[in-house]
């Protein structure tokens, strides 16, 4: 009996020793992702997850992330669904906080990001503030000025103020005959609402366009007859639509029905996507949208193709998620994170401090500058809907 | 004045779809004295089902074929809702069936989102480019078709209820299910047929809504359910003429409120309209006469 027990123990010990080297080599660093994977903006979450998985796959195939002790760790991505609701987003963030994830990339929706950043610790090192101490690196939620809410919040989203300023300036110089702008705005979505009222309208007026009116609708509206009639009465040269594809397509179709034909159509950054072309390519022809991604560089094309292998589409939002994973890899190596599961809080702090130190990062369109308030100043292009594609119309930075 | 007339006519034409949805809610309530909260979702689900299934076999199916597909899918989904949410649950458990239909609403919603990745789908329309002009006033061709089809369905339904044996059986079960059973009417079969018929109407309503918007989206489900309930209450629970009138009324008022008070206040006034009716005429426009013992 004793001999049998001894033999079994020896066998177990041999197995453990045999496995130990393999186990010791298989280190992982977890990067969490979260976004809307259900609901009407599900495509954003699906694409972000695909882009993150694709980026992690590329990094892992090159060896992974170098840790402080010189060893390498693979990146593991865990993506959570926040349903584009604030309660769910905060719940997901707390859940991620309880895991070994060093950083979270997300969320999709600005109405999630704003309250979520509010539950983070406002100032780093403030012991009186019991907010979450975990860096959040946003890829999609683009409402202006959110990162300043917390020193743990960082964003890699385009600066709409800069882009629309540039767009309306370009329209003014290229088309001096255009005088008037009319706005169409999706009132119950934080991003679209802020984009019209705080950015597009302001930038149009700053470039000497006369804003002759605005029509409002809700995301779930089915009837745009009143709004299209108002636009027709105003007879503007430019119609700027701050709405996501779902409602924008309804409005565009009604405009076509009622013969509303502005000389120029301007759209919301988030609408320069496959969704718009699937929903209303015919009506959106010629629409001009400023965007921080188009597959015009070698890196951009590679990112788009790799993301497609993970069943995602490349657009300005998902490609920001791709960029985020690579930026985080560089930060983790620069800050020499331990990768030790018992030192998650310390590693999170290092990631945060590393992100805060960045002055510029490498993006898919070129160099992205980082601002003092933890936002990004990304290069951008103007794209236009042509056929079933978004094609580059103008590169304002050349 | 022209704005008012235009807004009213657009709203009334679109309100025909609300009337169809209201009829579905009220017919089920009239027969079974229970609410089917999954009805709005089932209507949109039927429109999706018709589009996706046909799309798999026929890439550019004509619009009327797609509408027919939605119509038939609505009947099938209606029957499935009956079997899963009503047939096996004791008739005395009104709350159980209500919660079951809430679950079914969420299930249909999720199925649609997952089947389409939440992306809006183009929905075909007939006469969408046709506009009948009378000076500055116009009538949309596609909305006229929606209105006409909806009216034909309502007439067909009334004919079914008052001119056929099935209709007679349905009215008998609605009045007195026990007596109807004693007369040899198979109550379960009548209930199932009620759901199939309302499902057919709902499928057509979903198709008409998709056609008038030009796209189907999962976002349509909740507002349609709420509008359907409002129409049912204003029209009078169990009253089909009430649902018809209330649907047109709600559609018209909604459009007028939007024209003059904007989209941010529109729904507020529609809810106020509901409360006015609940306060002054809680039975609805056509309160049901009598009912079951």
Helix-strand category of chain B: mainly alpha
Distance between the first and last residues' Cα of chain A: 82 Å
**Oligomeric state as shown:** heterodimer
Mean pLDDT of chain A comes to: 91
Largest sheet of chain B: 2 strands, antiparallel
- Please state the average pLDDT score of chain B: 87
Low-confidence sequence ranges of chain B: none
Give the proportion of residues in helices of chain A: 40-55%
Q: Order of strands across the widest beta sheet of chain A?
A: 2-3-1-4-5-6
Domain count of chain A: the total is 2
According to CATH, the fold-level topology of the largest domain in chain A is Rossmann fold
Beta-strand content estimate of chain B: under 5%
CATH architecture of the largest domain in chain A: 3-Layer(aba) Sandwich
Major interchain interface with per-chain residue totals: A-B, 31 and 36 residues
For the largest beta sheet of chain B, what order do the strands appear in spatially?
1-4
Biggest pleated-sheet summary of chain A: 6 strands, mixed
Helix-strand makeup class of chain A: alpha/beta
Explain what this protein looks like in three dimensions.
- The complex is a heterodimer of chains A (398) and B (293).
- Chain A has 398 residues and is of the alpha/beta class.
- Chain A folds into 2 domains: 23-157 and 295-365, Rossmann fold (3-Layer(aba) Sandwich), CATH 3.40.50; 160-291 and 382-394, 3-Layer(aba) Sandwich (Rossmann fold).
- Chain A contains 12 helices and 16 strands.
- Chain A has helices at residues 2-25, 42-61, 86-97, 110-118, 160-174, 190-206, 225-234, 245-257, 274-284, 298-309, 316-334, 344-357, and strands at residues 27-35, 65-66, 72-81, 103-105, 136-138, 153-155, 180-186, 210-217, 238-242, 264-266, 288-291, 360-362, 367-370, 376-377, 381-386, 389-394.
- In chain A, the strands form 4 sheets. Chain A has a 6-stranded mixed beta sheet, with helices on both faces.
- In chain A, helix 2 (42-61) runs parallel beside helix 11 (316-334), helix 8 (245-257) runs parallel beside helix 9 and helix 11 crosses helix 12.
- Chain A is elongated, with a radius of gyration of 24 Å.
- The N and C termini of chain A lie far apart (82 Å).
- By secondary structure, chain B is mainly α.
- Chain B has a domain at 21-221.
- Chain B is 75% helix and 4% strand.
- In chain B, the strands form 2 sheets. In chain B, strands 1-4 form a two-stranded antiparallel ribbon.
- The longest helix of chain B has 31 residues, at 2-32.
- Chain B is globular.
- Chain B starts with a helix and ends in a 13-residue tail after the last helix.
- The relative contact order of chain B is 0.21.
- The mean pLDDT of chain B is 87.
- The A-B interface holds A 38-43, 46, 187, 216-223, 225-227, 229, 245-246, 249-250, 253, 257-258, 275, 278-280 and B 3, 6-7, 10-11, 14, 110, 113, 117-122, 128-129, 131, 138, 140, 209, 212-215, 217-220, 222-223, 255, 258-259, 262-264.
């Amino acid at each position: 009996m004793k001999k049998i027990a001894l033999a079994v123990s020896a066998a177990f010990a041999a197995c453990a020793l045999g496995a130990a080297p393999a186990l010791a080599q298989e280190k992982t660093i977890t990067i969490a992702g979260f976004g809307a994977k259900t609901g009407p903006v599900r495509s954003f979450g699906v694409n972000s997850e695909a882009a993150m998985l694709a980026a992690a796959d590329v990094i892992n195939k090159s060896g992974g992330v170098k840790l402080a002790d010189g060893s390498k760790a693979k990146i593991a991505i865990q993506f959570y669904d926040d349903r584009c609701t604030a309660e769910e987003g905060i719940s997901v963030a707390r859940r991620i906080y309880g895991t070994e994830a060093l950083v979270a990339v997300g969320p999709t929706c600005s109405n999630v990001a704003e309250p979520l950043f509010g539950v983070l610790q406002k100032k780093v090192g403030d012991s009186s503030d019991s907010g979450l101490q975990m860096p959040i690196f946003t890829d999609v939620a683009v409402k202006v000025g959110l990162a300043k809410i917390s020193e743990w919040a960082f964003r890699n989203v385009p600066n709409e103020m800069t882009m629309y300023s540039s767009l309306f300036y370009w329209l003014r110089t290229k088309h001096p005959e255009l005088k008037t702008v009319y706005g169409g705005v999706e009132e119950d979505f934080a991003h679209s609402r802020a984009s019209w009222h705080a950015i597009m309208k302001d930038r149009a007026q700053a470039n000497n366009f006369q804003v002759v009116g605005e029509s409002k609708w809700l995301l779930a509206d089915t009837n745009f007859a009143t709004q299209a009639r108002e636009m027709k009465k105003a007879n503007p040269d430019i119609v700027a639509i701050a709405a996501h594809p779902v409602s924008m397509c309804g409005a565009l179709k009604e405009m076509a029905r009622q013969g509303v034909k502005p000389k120029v159509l301007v759209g919301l950054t988030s609408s320069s996507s496959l969704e718009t072309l699937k929903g209303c390519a015919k009506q959106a022809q010629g629409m001009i949208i400023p965007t921080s991604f188009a597959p015009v560089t070698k890196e951009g094309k590679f990112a788009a193709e790799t993301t497609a292998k993970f069943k995602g589409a490349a657009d300005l939002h998902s490609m920001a998620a791709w960029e985020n994973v690579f930026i985080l890899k560089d930060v983790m190596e620069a800050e020499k994170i331990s990768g030790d599961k018992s030192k998650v809080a310390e590693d999170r702090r290092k990631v945060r401090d590393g992100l805060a130190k960045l002055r510029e990062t490498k993006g898919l369109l070129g160099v992205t500058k980082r601002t003092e308030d933890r936002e990004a100043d990304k290069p951008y292009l103007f794209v236009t809907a042509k056929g079933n594609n978004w094609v580059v119309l103008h590169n304002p930075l050349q | 004045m022209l704005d008012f007339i235009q807004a009213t006519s657009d709203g009334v034409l679109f309100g025909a779809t609300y009337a169809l949805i209201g009829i579905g809610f009220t017919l089920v309530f009239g027969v079974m004295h229970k609410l089917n909260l999954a009805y709005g979702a089932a209507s949109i689900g039927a429109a999706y089902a018709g589009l996706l299934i046909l799309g798999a076999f026929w890439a550019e199916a004509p619009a009327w074929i797609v509408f027919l597909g939605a119509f038939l899918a609505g009947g099938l989904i209606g029957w499935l809702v009956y079997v899963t949410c009503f047939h096996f649950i004791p008739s005395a458990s009104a709350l159980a069936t209500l919660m079951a239909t809430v679950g079914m609403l969420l299930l249909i919603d999720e199925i649609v989102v997952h089947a389409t990745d939440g992306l809006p789908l183009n929905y075909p329309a007939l006469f969408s480019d046709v506009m009948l002009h009378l000076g500055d006033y116009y009538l949309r061709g596609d909305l006229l078709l929606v209105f006409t089809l909806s009216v034909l369905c309502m007439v067909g339904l009334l004919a079914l209820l008052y001119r056929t044996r099935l209709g007679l059986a349905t009215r008998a079960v609605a009045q007195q299910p026990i007596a109807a059973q004693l007369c040899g009417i198979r109550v379960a079969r009548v209930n199932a047929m009620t759901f199939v018929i309302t499902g057919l109407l709902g499928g057509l309503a979903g198709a008409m809504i998709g056609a008038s918007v030009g796209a189907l989206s999962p976002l349509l489900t909740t507002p349609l359910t709420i509008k359907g309930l409002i129409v049912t209450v204003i029209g009078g629970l169990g009253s089909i003429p009430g649902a018809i009138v209330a649907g047109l009324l709600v559609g018209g008022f909604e459009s007028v409120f939007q024209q003059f008070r904007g989209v941010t206040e529109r729904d507020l006034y529609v809810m106020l309209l509901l409360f006015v009716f609940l306060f002054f005429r809680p039975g609805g426009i056509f309160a049901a006469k009598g009912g079951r013992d």
